[in-house]
Amino acid sequence: MKKILTAIFTASVIAFSSPAVFSTEEVVLTNNGGVPSLRSLVEVSDVNKAEALKKVPREQHLIDRNYVQQPPLIPHSIRGYQVNLNANKCLSCHSFKNAGAMGATKVSVTHFITREGTTLSDVSPRRYFCLQCHVTQADAKPLVDNTFIPVDSLR
Amino acid sequence: MLKLLKRLWVIMKSPSTASFGFILVIGFLGGIIFWGGFNTGMEATNTEAFCSGCHAPIVKEIRETIHYSNRSGVRAICSDCHVPHKWTDKIVRKVQASKELFAFAIGTIDTDEKFKARRAHLANREWQRMKENNSQECRNCHQFEYMDFSEQGKRSVSQHSTALASGDKTCVDCHKGIAHQLPDMKGIEGWQ
Protein backbone atom coordinates (compact mmCIF):
# COMPACT_ATOMS: atom_id res chain seq x y z
CA MET A 1 0.00 0.00 0.00
CA LYS A 2 2.77 2.36 1.01
CA LYS A 3 4.62 1.51 -2.15
CA ILE A 4 1.58 2.30 -4.32
CA LEU A 5 1.04 5.59 -2.54
CA THR A 6 4.65 6.58 -3.09
CA ALA A 7 4.37 5.67 -6.75
CA ILE A 8 1.22 7.77 -7.19
CA PHE A 9 2.82 10.64 -5.33
CA THR A 10 5.95 10.53 -7.45
CA ALA A 11 3.94 10.24 -10.64
CA SER A 12 1.80 13.23 -9.73
CA VAL A 13 4.86 15.29 -8.83
CA ILE A 14 6.36 14.50 -12.22
CA ALA A 15 3.05 15.12 -13.96
CA PHE A 16 2.59 18.50 -12.33
CA SER A 17 6.14 19.70 -12.56
CA SER A 18 7.05 18.66 -16.07
CA PRO A 19 4.36 20.64 -17.90
CA ALA A 20 5.76 23.69 -16.12
CA VAL A 21 9.18 22.93 -17.63
CA PHE A 22 7.70 22.41 -21.07
CA SER A 23 5.65 25.56 -20.93
CA THR A 24 8.65 27.80 -20.15
CA GLU A 25 10.41 26.23 -23.10
CA GLU A 26 7.42 26.94 -25.25
CA VAL A 27 7.53 30.59 -24.22
CA VAL A 28 11.18 30.68 -25.23
CA LEU A 29 10.33 29.32 -28.65
CA THR A 30 7.22 31.31 -29.42
CA ASN A 31 9.02 34.28 -30.96
CA ASN A 32 10.61 32.28 -33.74
CA GLY A 33 8.06 29.48 -33.62
CA GLY A 34 10.90 27.03 -33.20
CA VAL A 35 11.90 27.47 -36.83
CA PRO A 36 15.61 28.05 -37.40
CA SER A 37 16.23 31.08 -39.60
CA LEU A 38 19.41 32.14 -41.39
CA ARG A 39 20.62 33.45 -38.06
CA SER A 40 19.81 30.03 -36.57
CA LEU A 41 17.58 29.30 -33.57
CA VAL A 42 18.08 32.61 -31.80
CA GLU A 43 15.46 34.83 -30.24
CA VAL A 44 14.70 38.04 -32.09
CA SER A 45 15.78 39.99 -29.03
CA ASP A 46 19.08 38.11 -28.67
CA VAL A 47 22.31 38.84 -30.47
CA ASN A 48 23.86 35.72 -31.89
CA LYS A 49 27.57 35.10 -32.22
CA ALA A 50 29.13 37.01 -35.07
CA GLU A 51 30.54 34.94 -37.91
CA ALA A 52 34.22 35.37 -38.64
CA LEU A 53 34.78 37.81 -41.50
CA LYS A 54 35.27 36.07 -44.81
CA LYS A 55 38.53 36.67 -46.58
CA VAL A 56 38.63 37.90 -50.15
CA PRO A 57 41.33 35.90 -51.95
CA ARG A 58 44.21 38.01 -53.31
CA GLU A 59 43.48 36.52 -56.69
CA GLN A 60 41.04 34.03 -58.21
CA HIS A 61 39.96 32.73 -61.60
CA LEU A 62 37.67 34.91 -63.68
CA ILE A 63 34.19 34.26 -62.36
CA ASP A 64 31.55 33.24 -64.91
CA ARG A 65 28.49 35.40 -65.31
CA ASN A 66 25.12 33.91 -64.42
CA TYR A 67 22.78 36.09 -66.44
CA VAL A 68 22.90 38.49 -69.34
CA GLN A 69 23.77 42.05 -68.29
CA GLN A 70 25.28 40.86 -65.01
CA PRO A 71 28.12 43.17 -63.96
CA PRO A 72 31.24 40.96 -63.95
CA LEU A 73 32.61 40.16 -60.49
CA ILE A 74 36.00 41.38 -59.30
CA PRO A 75 38.42 38.45 -59.23
CA HIS A 76 41.02 40.00 -56.91
CA SER A 77 41.32 41.76 -53.57
CA ILE A 78 40.79 45.51 -53.53
CA ARG A 79 41.96 46.36 -50.04
CA GLY A 80 43.03 50.00 -49.77
CA TYR A 81 41.89 50.90 -53.30
CA GLN A 82 40.59 54.47 -53.34
CA VAL A 83 37.58 55.32 -55.49
CA ASN A 84 36.40 58.83 -54.70
CA LEU A 85 36.17 62.32 -56.10
CA ASN A 86 39.97 62.66 -56.21
CA ALA A 87 41.11 59.33 -57.51
CA ASN A 88 39.84 56.11 -59.08
CA LYS A 89 42.23 53.23 -58.51
CA CYS A 90 40.15 50.87 -60.66
CA LEU A 91 40.58 53.10 -63.68
CA SER A 92 44.33 53.28 -63.10
CA CYS A 93 44.36 49.75 -64.52
CA HIS A 94 41.04 49.32 -66.35
CA SER A 95 40.76 52.61 -68.26
CA PHE A 96 41.30 52.50 -72.03
CA LYS A 97 44.54 54.39 -71.56
CA ASN A 98 46.06 52.08 -68.93
CA ALA A 99 44.52 48.67 -69.57
CA GLY A 100 47.09 47.64 -72.18
CA ALA A 101 50.15 48.36 -70.06
CA MET A 102 48.63 46.84 -66.93
CA GLY A 103 47.28 43.72 -68.67
CA ALA A 104 43.78 44.42 -67.37
CA THR A 105 40.31 44.12 -68.94
CA LYS A 106 39.19 47.40 -70.53
CA VAL A 107 36.17 49.14 -69.09
CA SER A 108 33.19 48.65 -71.43
CA VAL A 109 32.35 51.56 -73.76
CA THR A 110 28.77 51.38 -72.51
CA HIS A 111 30.22 53.13 -69.44
CA PHE A 112 30.82 56.28 -71.51
CA ILE A 113 27.10 56.79 -72.13
CA THR A 114 25.23 59.27 -69.97
CA ARG A 115 21.65 58.66 -68.91
CA GLU A 116 20.45 60.95 -71.70
CA GLY A 117 22.16 58.65 -74.16
CA THR A 118 25.05 60.87 -75.23
CA THR A 119 28.43 59.22 -75.46
CA LEU A 120 31.23 61.03 -73.63
CA SER A 121 34.95 60.77 -74.28
CA ASP A 122 35.53 59.08 -70.92
CA VAL A 123 33.65 57.28 -68.17
CA SER A 124 30.28 58.89 -67.48
CA PRO A 125 29.64 60.16 -63.94
CA ARG A 126 26.84 57.63 -63.45
CA ARG A 127 29.34 54.80 -64.00
CA TYR A 128 32.25 56.33 -62.11
CA PHE A 129 31.75 54.55 -58.79
CA CYS A 130 32.70 51.07 -59.93
CA LEU A 131 31.84 49.34 -56.67
CA GLN A 132 28.15 50.18 -57.02
CA CYS A 133 27.88 47.29 -59.47
CA HIS A 134 31.13 45.34 -59.36
CA VAL A 135 31.93 43.53 -56.15
CA THR A 136 34.54 41.10 -54.87
CA GLN A 137 33.66 37.53 -53.97
CA ALA A 138 34.67 35.97 -50.68
CA ASP A 139 35.31 32.25 -50.53
CA ALA A 140 32.08 31.46 -48.66
CA LYS A 141 29.60 28.59 -48.69
CA PRO A 142 26.18 29.70 -49.95
CA LEU A 143 23.74 30.09 -47.04
CA VAL A 144 20.92 28.35 -48.91
CA ASP A 145 20.86 26.01 -51.88
CA ASN A 146 20.37 27.77 -55.17
CA THR A 147 18.79 26.05 -58.13
CA PHE A 148 19.23 28.94 -60.54
CA ILE A 149 20.54 27.83 -63.92
CA PRO A 150 22.10 30.35 -66.32
CA VAL A 151 20.59 30.60 -69.80
CA ASP A 152 22.16 28.39 -72.44
CA SER A 153 24.10 31.20 -74.11
CA LEU A 154 26.10 31.77 -70.94
CA ARG A 155 26.89 28.12 -70.34
CA MET B 1 80.70 90.40 -13.53
CA LEU B 2 83.30 91.34 -16.08
CA LYS B 3 86.00 90.70 -13.51
CA LEU B 4 84.68 87.23 -12.87
CA LEU B 5 84.65 86.43 -16.56
CA LYS B 6 88.21 87.68 -16.89
CA ARG B 7 89.34 85.44 -14.07
CA LEU B 8 87.57 82.48 -15.58
CA TRP B 9 89.30 83.13 -18.88
CA VAL B 10 92.69 83.30 -17.18
CA ILE B 11 92.03 79.94 -15.53
CA MET B 12 90.94 78.43 -18.81
CA LYS B 13 93.93 79.86 -20.68
CA SER B 14 96.68 78.82 -18.33
CA PRO B 15 97.89 75.24 -18.66
CA SER B 16 95.91 73.14 -16.31
CA THR B 17 97.37 71.18 -13.46
CA ALA B 18 94.90 68.42 -14.21
CA SER B 19 96.40 65.46 -16.03
CA PHE B 20 96.08 65.26 -19.78
CA GLY B 21 94.27 61.97 -19.41
CA PHE B 22 91.66 63.53 -17.14
CA ILE B 23 90.96 66.22 -19.69
CA LEU B 24 90.64 63.63 -22.43
CA VAL B 25 88.19 61.64 -20.35
CA ILE B 26 86.12 64.76 -19.64
CA GLY B 27 86.13 65.65 -23.32
CA PHE B 28 85.15 62.12 -24.25
CA LEU B 29 82.28 62.03 -21.78
CA GLY B 30 81.14 65.45 -22.90
CA GLY B 31 81.15 64.17 -26.47
CA ILE B 32 79.04 61.16 -25.57
CA ILE B 33 76.54 63.30 -23.73
CA PHE B 34 76.31 65.74 -26.61
CA TRP B 35 75.99 63.00 -29.22
CA GLY B 36 73.49 61.11 -27.11
CA GLY B 37 71.40 64.22 -26.60
CA PHE B 38 71.60 65.02 -30.29
CA ASN B 39 70.51 61.55 -31.31
CA THR B 40 67.78 61.43 -28.70
CA GLY B 41 66.51 64.67 -30.14
CA MET B 42 66.59 63.13 -33.60
CA GLU B 43 64.74 60.07 -32.32
CA ALA B 44 62.12 62.06 -30.41
CA THR B 45 61.29 63.97 -33.56
CA ASN B 46 60.77 60.64 -35.34
CA THR B 47 57.80 59.44 -33.30
CA GLU B 48 54.26 59.43 -34.59
CA ALA B 49 53.12 61.49 -31.61
CA PHE B 50 55.49 64.24 -32.72
CA CYS B 51 54.20 64.28 -36.30
CA SER B 52 50.59 64.12 -35.19
CA GLY B 53 51.04 67.47 -33.46
CA CYS B 54 50.81 69.14 -36.85
CA HIS B 55 49.48 66.35 -39.08
CA ALA B 56 46.49 65.13 -37.08
CA PRO B 57 44.18 64.48 -40.08
CA ILE B 58 46.84 62.29 -41.70
CA VAL B 59 47.44 60.23 -38.59
CA LYS B 60 43.70 59.51 -38.45
CA GLU B 61 43.52 58.31 -42.06
CA ILE B 62 46.45 55.98 -41.83
CA ARG B 63 44.63 53.57 -39.49
CA GLU B 64 42.92 51.67 -42.29
CA THR B 65 46.00 51.24 -44.43
CA ILE B 66 48.22 48.18 -44.74
CA HIS B 67 51.13 49.80 -42.93
CA TYR B 68 49.04 50.42 -39.83
CA SER B 69 47.09 47.19 -39.43
CA ASN B 70 47.97 43.93 -41.12
CA ARG B 71 48.26 40.21 -40.53
CA SER B 72 51.92 40.24 -39.42
CA GLY B 73 51.70 43.17 -37.02
CA VAL B 74 54.73 44.91 -38.49
CA ARG B 75 54.22 48.65 -38.79
CA ALA B 76 55.75 51.40 -40.84
CA ILE B 77 55.51 54.70 -38.99
CA CYS B 78 55.75 58.20 -40.45
CA SER B 79 59.51 58.45 -40.12
CA ASP B 80 60.09 55.05 -41.78
CA CYS B 81 58.74 56.49 -45.03
CA HIS B 82 59.60 60.16 -44.64
CA VAL B 83 62.97 60.34 -42.87
CA PRO B 84 65.97 58.87 -44.69
CA HIS B 85 68.15 56.34 -42.84
CA LYS B 86 71.51 57.46 -44.14
CA TRP B 87 73.01 59.89 -41.68
CA THR B 88 73.84 62.63 -44.19
CA ASP B 89 70.45 62.39 -45.93
CA LYS B 90 68.78 62.42 -42.55
CA ILE B 91 70.46 65.69 -41.53
CA VAL B 92 69.56 67.22 -44.87
CA ARG B 93 65.92 66.19 -44.49
CA LYS B 94 65.79 67.46 -40.91
CA VAL B 95 67.17 70.81 -41.97
CA GLN B 96 64.64 70.91 -44.81
CA ALA B 97 62.02 70.08 -42.23
CA SER B 98 62.98 73.24 -40.37
CA LYS B 99 61.30 74.91 -43.32
CA GLU B 100 58.11 73.14 -42.24
CA LEU B 101 58.45 75.03 -38.97
CA PHE B 102 58.25 78.25 -40.92
CA ALA B 103 55.27 76.96 -42.89
CA PHE B 104 53.76 75.95 -39.57
CA ALA B 105 54.32 79.42 -38.16
CA ILE B 106 52.53 81.06 -41.07
CA GLY B 107 49.96 78.24 -41.02
CA THR B 108 49.95 76.69 -44.50
CA ILE B 109 48.00 73.58 -43.47
CA ASP B 110 46.53 74.43 -40.10
CA THR B 111 42.89 74.00 -41.14
CA ASP B 112 41.23 71.17 -43.06
CA GLU B 113 40.43 73.47 -45.94
CA LYS B 114 43.95 74.81 -46.25
CA PHE B 115 45.36 71.28 -46.01
CA LYS B 116 42.99 70.03 -48.71
CA ALA B 117 43.97 72.87 -51.00
CA ARG B 118 47.69 72.35 -50.47
CA ARG B 119 47.68 68.57 -50.38
CA ALA B 120 48.29 67.96 -54.08
CA HIS B 121 51.30 70.24 -53.95
CA LEU B 122 52.79 68.46 -50.92
CA ALA B 123 52.09 65.00 -52.34
CA ASN B 124 53.79 65.95 -55.58
CA ARG B 125 56.86 67.14 -53.70
CA GLU B 126 56.97 63.83 -51.83
CA TRP B 127 56.60 61.76 -55.03
CA GLN B 128 59.35 63.82 -56.62
CA ARG B 129 61.65 63.22 -53.64
CA MET B 130 60.99 59.47 -53.67
CA LYS B 131 61.45 59.27 -57.42
CA GLU B 132 64.83 60.93 -57.09
CA ASN B 133 66.03 58.51 -54.40
CA ASN B 134 64.43 55.49 -56.16
CA SER B 135 61.96 55.01 -53.28
CA GLN B 136 64.82 54.33 -50.88
CA GLU B 137 62.50 54.43 -47.85
CA CYS B 138 60.28 51.67 -49.26
CA ARG B 139 63.36 49.63 -50.09
CA ASN B 140 64.65 49.86 -46.53
CA CYS B 141 61.94 47.31 -45.78
CA HIS B 142 60.92 45.86 -49.15
CA GLN B 143 63.94 44.70 -51.08
CA PHE B 144 63.35 43.74 -54.66
CA GLU B 145 66.13 41.10 -54.54
CA TYR B 146 64.20 39.14 -51.92
CA MET B 147 60.75 39.28 -53.47
CA ASP B 148 59.48 35.74 -54.06
CA PHE B 149 57.44 35.97 -57.24
CA SER B 150 55.87 32.56 -56.62
CA GLU B 151 54.31 33.99 -53.47
CA GLN B 152 53.05 37.21 -55.06
CA GLY B 153 49.82 37.70 -56.93
CA LYS B 154 49.73 37.46 -60.72
CA ARG B 155 49.15 41.19 -61.06
CA SER B 156 52.07 41.97 -58.77
CA VAL B 157 54.45 39.69 -60.64
CA SER B 158 53.55 41.00 -64.07
CA GLN B 159 54.51 44.52 -62.99
CA HIS B 160 57.39 43.76 -60.63
CA SER B 161 59.19 41.43 -63.01
CA THR B 162 59.03 43.97 -65.83
CA ALA B 163 58.85 47.69 -65.12
CA LEU B 164 60.30 47.42 -61.61
CA ALA B 165 63.02 44.91 -62.44
CA SER B 166 64.23 46.97 -65.38
CA GLY B 167 64.34 50.12 -63.28
CA ASP B 168 61.86 51.88 -65.60
CA LYS B 169 59.62 52.64 -62.67
CA THR B 170 60.05 52.92 -58.94
CA CYS B 171 57.69 51.97 -56.12
CA VAL B 172 55.89 55.31 -55.80
CA ASP B 173 55.21 55.42 -59.55
CA CYS B 174 52.75 52.58 -59.08
CA HIS B 175 51.94 52.62 -55.36
CA LYS B 176 50.69 56.15 -54.90
CA GLY B 177 48.41 56.62 -51.93
CA ILE B 178 49.75 53.53 -50.20
CA ALA B 179 49.53 55.28 -46.83
CA HIS B 180 47.27 58.28 -47.38
CA GLN B 181 44.12 59.55 -49.05
CA LEU B 182 45.07 60.78 -52.48
CA PRO B 183 44.77 64.38 -53.66
CA ASP B 184 43.11 65.18 -57.00
CA MET B 185 44.87 62.83 -59.43
CA LYS B 186 43.86 64.55 -62.65
CA GLY B 187 46.86 64.75 -64.96
CA ILE B 188 49.06 62.43 -62.89
CA GLU B 189 50.71 59.77 -65.02
CA GLY B 190 48.95 56.43 -64.84
CA TRP B 191 45.73 57.88 -63.43
CA GLN B 192 42.57 59.02 -65.12
Describe this structure in words.
The complex is a heterodimer of chains A (155) and B (192). Chain A is mainly alpha-helical and 155 residues long. Chain A has helices spanning 2-30, 91-94, 96-102. Chain A is elongated, with a radius of gyration of 29 Å. Chain B is an all-alpha fold. Chain B has a domain at 35-137. Chain B has helices spanning 2-13, 20-44, 48-52, 56-61, 78-82, 87-106, 112-132, 136-141, 154-164, 171-174. The termini of chain B are far apart. Classes of the chains: A mainly alpha (155), B mainly alpha (192). The A-B interface holds A 58-59, 76, 79-80, 82, 84-89, 91-92, 95, 97-98, 102-103, 122-123 and B 64-66, 153-155, 158-159, 177-178, 181-185, 190-192.
Contiguous helical run count of chain A: 3
**Major interchain interface with per-chain residue totals:** A-B, 21 and 18 residues
The multimeric state of the shown protein is heterodimer
| Classification by helices and strands of chain A | mainly alpha
Our estimate of the beta-strand percent of chain A is under 5%
- Please state roughly what percent of the residues of chain B sit in beta strands, choosing from under 5%, 5-15%, 15-25%, 25-35%, 35-45% or over 45%: under 5%
CATH H-level homologous superfamily name of the largest domain in chain A? Flavocytochrome C3, Chain A
Radius of gyration of chain B: 24 Å
Low-confidence stretches of chain A: 17-27
Give the helix proportion of chain B (percent range): 55-70%
Unreliable runs of chain B? none
- First and last CA, distance of chain A: 80 Å
Total strand count of chain A, please? 0
Number of beta strands of chain B: 0
Q: What's the SSE pattern of chain B? A: HHHHHHHHHH
Determine Rg of chain A (CA atoms, Å).
Answer: 29 Å
